[in-house]
């Protein structure tokens, strides 16, 4: 089997999930770039370095791995400017419908489901065991967190996040830059950016 190498930009919690999926996808060599890396730090035997200049060897494929959407956008743009081939990383343990679309730089975790006609935007995260049902839209740099459910024909905007275990019923629209708290149930569309939580979901703080 030929060596496959992946550069992971970031070394926070989400980067560890990225690493696990990458190894399951057949990547044999990983390297992490994170400004907070400690001297000689490694993760499961793979190097963690503070700058791109500290990388050893040639690296072409890369993925932005911050859990924060705005930071992930900056990472992805920097990788592109530096000439890396930014990939999408889709767990072989996920299910993705034949006509679903997943844009470049996105991550789909183990046991996630993306239904028919769904569209996942650039640099988005569909995390472990999340459900993105038929004809839904996940915006650029959005995050559908672990065990969250986006029911059919719903939409979550750019840079928005569904917390762990949150549920959005069918035909709901959540706008850009909106955070929905863990375990919330969204039964009405949300137009104004801000933080929302509860069952049913209510505004906690509007921008």
């Amino acid at each position: 089997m030929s060596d496959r190498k992946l550069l992971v930009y970031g070394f926070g919690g989400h980067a560890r999930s990225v690493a696990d999926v990458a190894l399951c996808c057949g990547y044999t060599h990983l390297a992490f770039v994170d400004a907070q890396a400690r001297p000689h730090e490694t993760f499961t035997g793979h190097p963690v370095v503070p700058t791109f200049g500290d990388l050893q060897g040639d690296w072409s494929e890369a993925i932005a791995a911050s859990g924060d959407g705005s930071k992930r956008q900056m990472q992805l743009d920097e990788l592109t400017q530096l000439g890396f081939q930014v990939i999408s990383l889709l767990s072989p343990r996920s299910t993705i419908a034949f006509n679903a679309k997943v844009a470049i730089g996105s991550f789909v975790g183990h046991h996630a489901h993306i239904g028919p006609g769904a569209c996942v935007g650039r640099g988005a995260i569909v995390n472990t065991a999340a459900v993105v049902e038929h004809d839904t839209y996940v915006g650029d740099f959005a995050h559908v967190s672990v065990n969250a459910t986006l029911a059919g024909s719903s939409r979550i905007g750019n840079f928005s996040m569904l917390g762990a275990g949150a549920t959005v019923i069918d035909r709901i629209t959540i706008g850009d830059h909106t955070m929905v708290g863990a375990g919330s149930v969204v039964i009405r569309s949300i137009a104004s950016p801000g933080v929302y939580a509860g069952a049913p979901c209510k505004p906690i703080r509007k921008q």
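The radius of gyration is 17 Å. The chain has two domains: 5-87, 90-201.
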